[in-house]
Each structure stands twice: as structure tokens, then as C-alpha cells.
Amino acid sequence: MKKTKNNQLWIAIIAAVIGAITTGIVDFVKKLPVLSTLKTVISFLYHSLLSFLTFGISVWVIISAIIILWLIKKLFKPKFEPPSYLDYKEDRLKAWLWKWDWNIDRYNKITVSNLRPYCPNCNTKLMYQDDWRASRANCPRCNLSFSNYNGFENIAEIESLIIDNIEKKQEGR
Ligand SMILES: [Zn+2]
Q: Which pTM value belongs to this model?
């Protein structure tokens, strides 16, 4: 009889404990959405702040690195020394005397510019005649006339010869 009473007591205690736990779980679950939302917001803010700070440091590092690299480049950049062939500005490559200038762009690329022909007879600058053949030149002084059939010198060919002369000289040919 005493044993039965004890059993009933234990059942009552277990029921009370289960009830309390269940209520606790229910309450916890009820509170959970609010709690998890808050947690998400805090987490989001924390990560945003962290990534913002990291980004800020990265930008600062990148800007510093760019400035340092630019300074190094500026300080250690080999000074451009114009090649000796820049004195070579006139030549009689075929029959005509040709004169030209050198153009150096901001990347130090050197090209022939303002290439102009002179009369082989009197060294006066020849005048191009833009007729339908576009390949005629006259001397305004001695009236010599040149055409494709009569000693006309092609400007593109002359430029190629100038460059070839420089390359041959540089290669020691
Ligand atoms: Zn002439």
C-alpha cells in the first residue's frame, strides 16, 4: 500500500516536471522568432561593420600601395636617352634629297614625320601636284617635273628606306 502511494507521488512529480518543461519549451519557442530576428539583425550589423572596416583598411592599403608604386616608378624609371640616329634628318636615298623630322610620343615611340622631297637638280623643295594620278611633283625653281613614269619617288618607300638604314646601322650591317 505504501509502495503504491510512493508510485503515485513519483508520477505526480514527473508530470509536474514534464508540464514545467513543456511550458518552458512552449514559452521558449514563442520567444524564439523575436530572439532569432534580433540575433540576425545584430549579426547583420556586426558583419556589415566588420566588412565596412575591412573594406576601409583595404582601400587605404590599396591607395598607399598605388602611391608607393607610383613613387618607385617615378624614382627608378630609367631616363629616356634619345637615340643617336635622331641627328639623321636628311639623305639622298634615291635621286631626290629628302628631309624629315623625328616625332617622339609620350610613350617614347619614335616615328618619321614631316618627310619632304627636294629637287635633285637645284635642291628646292618639290611641290606635289594633286591631280587625278596623285603622284606628280614639280620643282618651282627649275620646273623639273616628276611622275610615276619619270622618277617620282614614293613617300612610303622613302620612309621604309630611312628606317631600314637606321636598323642596318644599329645592327652593324
Ligand atoms: Zn629644281
A: 0.54
DSSP string, 5-17: HHHHHHHHHHHHH
Reported as a single tens digit per residue, the pLDDT across 1-30 is 556 677 888 888 888 888 778 777 777 666
Ligand 1 mean position, distance from CA 126 (Å)? 7
Distance from Cα 10 to the centre of ligand 1, integer Å: 132
Residue 145 Cα, ligand 1 centroid: separation in angstroms?
9
Mark which of 27, 53, 77 sits at the end of a domain.
77
* Digit-coded pLDDT (tens) for 86-95: 999 999 999 9
Same domain, 152 and 125: yes
- How remote is the CA of residue 134 from the centroid of ligand 1, in Å? 20
Label residue 117 exposed, middle or buried (CB < 10 Å: 0-12, 13-18, 19+).
Answer: buried
